[in-house]
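Contributing new records

If you add data, match the layout below exactly. Sequence lines come first and carry their own label; structure lines follow with theirs. Keep one chain per record. Anything else will be rejected by the validation script.
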Amino acid sequence: MRVLCYDCFSGISGDMNLGAMLDLGIKESFLIRELKKLNLKGWKLTAVKEQRHGITGTKVTVIQTSQEKDNRHLAEIENIINSSGLDKKTKDLSIRIFKKLAEAEALVHNTTPDRVHFHEVGAIDSIIDIVGAAICYNALNVDKVLVSGIELGGGFIKCEHGKLPVPAPATAELIRGMAVKKGGVDFEATTPTGAAILSVIGTHFGDNFRFIPEKTGYGTGQRDHPNVPNLLRVFLGNADEARTGHDALLIECNIDDMNPEFFEHLSGKLFESGASDVFISGTLMKKGRPGNILRVICETGSEERLKDIIFRESTTTGIRTFTFRKDTLVRKFESLKTEYGTITIKRSFHKGREVSCKPEFEEIRKIAIEKDLPVKEVYNSIMALLTPDGEQPVTINKRKR
């Protein structure tokens, strides 16, 4: 299982993240080529090696080469991304990060995300930072993103609205549910852009991770600090697949007075924010009222932001949280060439032995709709092609998850 681990001992910003990605092995030429698909003029990206406390990292700077609009609404930024030549996965991830920022700013300013007027974040360098983060993340093709305790910094910052305490108000909203620390340095160590990136791609937050590092990258901050190296450290590696059991959390609550049509929206928000599973079962409440129990399975470190969603999006007045042991099968995802095109299949293993193999249903369903075929016909045709792992299915892009 491929993992990316952020060690944010000196915080994170958009440019530090890009520097760490290049230091990890993403090609500068590839990143610039993809960013040019935005069709934005008036910028260039430089990447140089610099040291902080004797550690060499990559320092990325986005330079504005001509006068460019730096105040944009979310709709304008979405239009730039959607009309670009970027692939759909990169467009979707970039917009998710910007939406997170808009939601945080909207909470701070008591307005709605569509009315938020981005200032610093709407500038061209922030667009490059966020879209660049999406490009690099998708290029690495990882299964999990682990995020250590994030240093926020200290002191005050100057922005459009005057002098504000660190962390900036938008950053304070974005770090909900994350493990953080404060005061390690006397400047803004974690910016809203850096916090937004982690809030979207991060899957596990804390300091007790188990993985096998393979590569290490360092992103260099713009300033130097006498006491702490201003660096973002990122590891690329593998999770220990032999350790299939671990502690997880179960969050549940009773709901008996909510429009059932709201459950689909609530479930979607929970999955987007890192829930491993969401399910709802019927029950009989006090005074004979029919109701539902909402249950959410998640990893330790993500519970607070999931609870926030439940309280905001449902009518429950109380939540229960339990720790339990979760044992899972080792899974491998493969791409199989078929008469319908390339299909993703999932193989599951217990103690090294394959116990199940099946295609991803959503892909089957999409093919059935596009070709006006019964779902069962497409499904059965694909199942007839599958063979036990180790024989000879025609596969490409084989990866573990």
